[in-house]
Amino acid sequence: MFIDATVAAGQIGHLLCGEKTRVEAAKDGVCKIFAMADGLVGINDDLVEQINRLNENLSVACVGPFRRVEKGQLIAKIQIVSDEVEASVLVDLGAICADEKAFRLYAFAPMRVGLVVTTKSNTVEASVSAIQQILIDKLKALGSEIGRSSVVDHSSNAISVALNSFIPHHGLALVFGAADIIARDDVVPKAVVQVNGVIEHFGMPVEPGNRLLLAKVGDMPLIGVPMCVRDHQQTGFDLVLERLLCGVGVHSDDLKKMGVGGLLDNKSVMR
Questions:
Q1: Tens digit of pLDDT for each residue in 15-42?
Q2: Element spanning 241, H or E
Q3: pLDDT of residue 99
């Protein structure tokens, strides 16, 4: 028994469509799935691969995991390659999708973010204003905003005092130091420990951004922001920030998995 390609594509689309995604009416054997909000796309990689192995007449293509998308953006496309497909394919697909979805959307949620910027004796005031504006713009683009912002000396004591002032009132803390973090016993990590925080991971296999610090103070995540953020380009910081602002937990193992695709600045050429 065979089923018309357009009918089959529509049925498959609804089987794969998860939270905050929308299925467009199928046409010409094609069904498209769109994001219903700004956010990151959640992909069940194993399930998509399993579906594509069912039958060569069935094709499911999608964006990469945790791709940042806007509301209304296409995230997946199901296509029946020929005019019809065996009914048994849909039966098999229904069985493997019984308890899980292939696609979902993690929507950005507004968050109040605390910011600490440190300075040394040779720090130029304009550079402080510049990094504050860069971070304000990044947060605004994701639907969040800076709450309390403090500029303090580059010392663990000064940073810890600033952190204590906004820990209960913010969902996330950012610390941008006058110098990059180079070890777990550096100034910023020491400040985290002083406020009874926990260092979850230092460094990440993403370039630029490999000197990022991921920590937690109580229930509040904290990011030690790498200095490369000043260059206005995408960095590992952006990848972590996006996940945190849409409710996707980020832990040490998550950072370790970012190496594949982690070479963000690949414009260098061999000379």
A1: 999 999 999 999 999 999 999 999 999 9
A2: helix 236-245
A3: 86
Domain boundary among 42, 77, 107: 107
Angle between helices 187-194 and 156-166 (to 10 degrees): 50
Q: How far is the CA of 69 from the CAs of 66, 206, 210, 237, in angstroms?
A: 9, 21, 24, 17
Kindly state the tokens that stand for 88. Answer: 């048994």
In a domain, 50, yes or no: yes
**Count of structural domains, the chain:** 2
Indicate if 97 and 119 belong to the same structural domain.
no
Domain at 165, CATH number:
3.40.980.10
Domain membership of residue 266 (yes or no) is no
Give dist(CA 169, CA 88) in Å, integer.
Answer: 55
Task: Give the residue among 14, 15, 10 at the shortest CA–CA distance from 29.
Answer: 10
Nearest-angstrom CA–CA distance, 206 and 12: 36
Q: 53 is written with which tokens? A: 């192995």
Q: What is the pLDDT of residue 168?
A: 80
Edge-first strand order for the sheet with 172-176 is 145-153, 112-119, 172-176, 220-225, 213-217, 198-202
Cα maximum dimension of the chain: 78
Residues 183 and 166 in one domain: yes
In the block, residue with structure tokens 């069985």: 95
Lateral strand order in the sheet of 58-62: 21-23, 30-35, 74-80, 58-62
Residue 91 lies in domain: 2-107
Mean pLDDT in the chain? Answer: 95
Residues 140 and 242 placed together within one structural domain of the fold: yes
